Amino acid sequence: MSPRCQKFNLTWLYFSIIAIMAGFLWFGNSNPGSSSKEVSYSELKQYIAKGYGNEIIVDKGEGQISLAVRPEHIRTVFFTKVPNKWARNPKVRAKYPLPIG
What we know:
Elements: H1 10-27, E1 34-38, H2 41-49, E2 53-59, E3 64-69, H3 74-78, E4 89-95
Parallel strand pairs: 1-4
Antiparallel strand pairs: 2-3, 3-4
C-alpha cells in the first residue's frame, strides 16, 4: 500500500483571510475621513497663533486639545502634499498641562 498524500485544505486559507479582514475592521481607523498628528502643547499654541485652524476642541477628561487644520495649511502642518485621506478633517492634537493642586 502506498501512503496517502494529504491535500491542502482550502478551508484554512478562507479562515485566514477572514481573520485578517476582521483584524483590519477591529483595529482599523474608526473615522476614515480624518487624520491626526500628535504635537507638543507649545507647537499647538503656535499653530493657533498663526491661524492654521478653524476649530479648537478641548477634551477635559483626556486632557487633550485638538485643532482642526484649515485645508490651505495642511501642507505646512503635515509637511506633505494633500492626500485624499486628509481632505475632510485633519487635526493636530496635544496634551495640555494640567494645573497642580
